[in-house]
Design a protein that fits this description.
Two copies of one chain form a homodimer. By secondary structure, chain A is of the alpha/beta class. In chain A, 41% of the residues lie in helices and 13% in strands. The two termini of chain A are 34 Å apart.
Chain lengths: 393, 393
């Protein structure tokens, strides 16, 4: 059976070049990058190169790159670090949105329990956060605005440049979780670039064809960030712990490859494959539609609802046919609650529970899309035959 | 030039079997372990196996193993998580020691700044924390006692079973940073075992021949721990973030290998190599001695002072001869302050600055020790010839 992986937003495989880049760092160049002897300094040089590669990818300074253990840690460090402590007399105010990943949303709730004021902005029916809503929510004590760049479930892209400018005009810091934007959208954080008002930006390695357990928090030079972890003086005192040299080397290489890929024709080709999948499914499956169709979306993602189908049943049925897809975020798998993102967009509970995310990777081929199109409509039809509500409709 | 690595307490290379164990998880079995499809479930099964391997190594339940990004995160999670919030009306009390790794010591200081009461216990001249000192320091509001199992700089082993029993008898939780004990000393955390009073125990992968960026916090079933990071429900809500599947697989394998190695004759052989190195250096270098010689020590470590020698100069001189050693903790490299551990043992600043850590790995050979013994005394003598104080003495 051919296996077709359409769940790249959950995680990506390593690229062979990324695997190759980290190969010397397991047995040969294995030193601790803080050691002053030659094995340590070899590791340090490799870290420096990776930091330069990441800085080049983000159009920022090497000193603005903080390597972390992943997206969750990056988001937590950004929110806790920028908010700082709150108390009853001087509570800080955090603004975030209803379409964040849980790494931001749950952290915001934890900050709320610790005394901060927290505002959760709504989105419109296409999943977009309106700049006017942010403008209206700002308060004198707003310390941080955190808004996801591209949503993991729908691919919907927020107007980050505009939102960040609004936050800055008000004197608040701006963070964006760009885990699902990296390698799909240009990220130019230079002082003259479109993202010049973004102060903090989170990346995850394993969504970018680099290893799980790696990530980056971009921290603009002007930002004072309280650390989340305490220990050694690694990462300029912003993130202690012996550096994960092979992982960071891999992430640097992955950033370099992502930059080159985005400048290539393959980037547009992937969006065409996504469009072919989306159009094919819509044409062959009645009572279906695209969630967030009216918004700009990342080129690899489509989130479709199939009325009268339980997403989890469809995920399992497709898995048996060799196709890996997802009902919402991987971190939510097995959860009985419908996606908070789709609910925020105004979908009914039933429709949210009947929605599937298809996310293509750079390795996805036209042949795989055609094969998927030959399988999925039939799988949906079979499940509907078992549905009492479908028969009535 | 032969390269001889005697800095295993800074970091270890991967064992070839560990590298082999994680090989399938980069390109083939690359799924997100939270995904319900087959690629995800394959990753989940690998995680489950690694968790069982680690539980077997620690003689604990699989559910008591929390995978982290390393020793620093484990120590931070243990201290913040067990202490919980403090305020002026109900401050918690933390007891730790002057011979901790910075991942505990700096975290304790951060807790102190956040309102907790913190006691730093002294050690004796051999680096051992006296049980009577702990007994005397306990207060009605002592929530946690955190004491390092084996010191990273000296190898000195604390009487952890006894110290933990004292903490428990008082109703306080007990944590130990066992990063340098794992794979060197038996760690039996079973409810009937000698470490039954240890509630929390930190391990780091890269000191155990597994990758950097991996670690474990053992959390005894009875312990309620507040999370440090917020996001998904991974690790039973104790540590969110997509699991680092290859790293965890490697760590599980490394734990299995460590258990087998400790039961083999090689374990005693390594201690003999260390003893040969130590005795050879003491015999051939005047005005030298072993720091912590009077205490039980891990079998791979010796920390020697060479009067009238700057440790950093000797580290560099030996590096030029192909020998990698360390002046104190790697995390402290380049720091101008002398080791806080050696100072706590009562060494003068000069002697602390003239002390070198030699830490052998499982891969160290007798030939390497003999080669090192042929090089080191001469290097010390040459440096002393440049020292005005040596010429006067």
């Amino acid at each position: 059976m051919q296996r077709i992986y359409l769940d790249a937003n959950a995680t990506t495989p390593l690229l062979p070049e990324v695997l190759e880049a980290m190969r010397p760092f397991w047995l040969e160049v294995f030193g601790n990058a803080s050691s002053i002897h030659q094995p340590g300094q070899q590791a340090r040089a490799a870290l420096d190169l990776a930091r330069d590669q990441m800085a080049s990818f983000l159009h920022c300074r090497a000193s603005e790159v903080v390597f972390t253990s992943g997206g969750t840690e990056g988001d937590n460090l950004a929110l806790f670090g920028a908010m700082g402590p709150s108390d009853a007399s001087t509570p800080g105010h955090l603004i975030t949105t209803s379409v964040e990943h849980n790494a931001v949303l749950k952290t915001a709730l934890a900050l709320g329990e610790a005394g901060a004021e927290v505002t959760i902005l709504p989105c419109n029916t296409q999943g977009v956060v309106e700049p006017a809503a942010l403008q209206a929510a700002l308060r004198p004590n707003t310390r941080l605005v955190s808004i996801i760049f591209a949503n993991n479930e729908t691919g919907v892209i927020q107007p980050i440049a505009e939102l960040a400018a609004i936050a800055h005009a008000h004197g608040a810091l701006f963070h964006t979780d760009a885990v699902q934007a990296a390698g799909k959208l240009p990220l130019d954080l230079s002082p003259e670039g479109p993202l010049r008002h973004v102060d903090l930006l989170t990346l995850s390695g394993h969504k970018l064809y680099a290893p799980k357990g790696t990530g980056v928090l971009f921290v603009r030079r002007s930002v004072r960030l309280a650390p989340l972890l305490f220990g050694g003086s690694h990462e300029r005192h912003r993130r202690p712990g012996t550096e994960n040299v092979p992982g960071i080397v891999a992430l640097g290489k992955a950033a370099e490859l992502a930059g080159a890929w985005m400048a290539s024709k393959e980037h547009a080709h992937l969006a065409q494959l996504r469009d072919r999948l989306e159009a094919g499914l819509l044409a062959s499956i009645p009572a279906s539609g695209v969630n967030g169709a009216g918004a700009p979306r990342t080129g690899n993602t489509t989130n479709l609802y199939f009325d009268h189908v339980e997403a989890e049943a469809l995920v399992i049925a497709l898995d048996l046919k060799g196709i890996a897809v997802s009902g919402g975020s991987a971190c939510h798998s097995g959860a009985t609650e419908p996606s908070h993102v789709l609910k925020a967009m105004g979908l009914s509970t039933e429709r949210a529970r009947g929605s599937i995310r298809f996310s293509l990777s750079r390795l996805t081929t036209a042949q795989e899309i055609d094969a998927a199109l030959a399988i999925i409509p039939d799988a949906v039809a079979r499940l509907r035959q078992l549905s009492p509500t479908w028969k009535q409709s």
